[in-house]
Design a protein that fits this description.
The structure is a single chain. With 291 residues, the chain is of the alpha/beta class. The protein has one domain: Glucose-regulated metallo-peptidase M90, N-terminal domain (Cyclin A, domain 1), CATH 1.10.472.150. It contains 13 helices and six strands. The strands form two sheets. A four-stranded mixed sheet has the order 1-2-6-5. β1, α5 and β2 form a beta-alpha-beta unit. This is Zinc-dependent peptidase. GO terms for molecular function: aminopeptidase activity; metallopeptidase activity. It holds the Pfam family Peptidase_M90. Keywords: Membrane, Transmembrane, Transmembrane helix.
Length: 291
């Protein structure tokens, strides 16, 4: 009799335990489903907001801000864009640099030793170019490969100074030509900006976050605008974009953003509509704030 009672008590305890476990699982599943629904509702609402306001809800939100090591932090003061920012945005810029350096692997080829200076020059250029984007770390970029000068591309079977390989999530650059583009700021040739733009463009096609949506949707609008024969004729005659821009639509946008970053006033003066498309694509409104 006592054994029978004991068995009943054990069964009751197991039933209680199973009931509690089922309740916990039920709560977790419900919270998960509700969270997913809320995410997609907010995502849709932000898309609607973007259509009306031409910008995302917000750009910067960080639970905590990272700082660079002191030996890298000093390079920030040499960057003109960083120095043009207010105190709050400087902290955001530094945080993004620190996060980028955590996520990206730098590799030197042909005996090139990649030091802190080299890493920071590329990092700061990348962060400037994506500073208007909330999603600035690209899913299709994890490695940056630096060569001393031009290199032979196995992918394209050509001698290159830069290339983006989405399959290997790698950006390859000639350090010599990267520096040349960075030092000459008004000739519409900037290897770093050019290749980073290719990475951003590819990422925007493959991903569906708000930054990718804004970039790609605005690019399609720009493409439609450029479909007018008269507009294309004006662009060619203005001689603002180098000839390589007319290779295809991907090279066009990369060269256009080179000019936007180096000579925004010239682009705005000659082609205000195209300038505005680029501003929207990158959500980059900082040049206006400098005036």
């Amino acid at each position: 009799m006592n054994y029978h009672v004991f068995s009943l008590l054990v069964l009751q305890e197991e039933e209680v335990s199973n009931s509690i476990l089922q309740n916990i699982i039920g709560v977790v599943v419900t919270v998960g489903i509700v969270s997913i629904c809320v995410y997609y509702v907010l995502r849709y609402m932000e898309s609607v907001y973007y259509k009306h306001k031409q910008k995302p809800y917000f750009i910067h939100f960080y639970p905590s801000l990272k700082k660079l090591p002191s030996y890298l932090e000093e390079f920030l003061e040499e960057n003109d864009f960083y120095k043009s920012l207010d105190k709050k945005r400087r902290k955001y810029f530094e945080h993004r640099c620190a996060r980028f350096l955590e996520e990206i692997r730098f590799v030197g080829r042909e005996g090139l030793v990649v030091d802190g200076f080299m890493k920071m020059q590329i990092t700061m250029m990348f962060i400037q170019l994506t500073f208007g984007m909330r999603h600035y770390l690209l899913a299709y970029l994890s490695t940056i490969i630096l060569y001393p000068k031009s290199f032979y591309s196995i992918l394209n079977q050509t001698e290159n100074i830069g290339e983006f390989n989405p399959r290997s999530k790698a950006l390859a650059l000639s350090w010599k030509h990267f520096l040349k583009g960075k030092q000459n700021k008004d000739h519409g040739r900037n290897l770093g900006v050019h290749e980073i733009t290719h990475a951003i463009h590819y990422n925007s096609i493959k991903k569906n976050d708000i930054s990718s949506e804004i970039f790609y949707d605005t690019f399609l609008e720009l493409e439609e605008y450029l479909g007018a024969i008269e507009i294309r004729k004006q662009i060619v005659e203005a001689n603002l974009l180098r000839e390589y821009a007319f290779t295809d639509k991907f090279e066009f946008i990369a060269v256009l953003i080179e000019v936007f970053m180096e000579s925004p006033d010239k682009l705005k003066a000659k082609f205000p509509n195209i300038y505005e498309y680029v501003v929207r694509m990158l959500n980059f409104r900082y040049f206006e704030e400098l005036h």
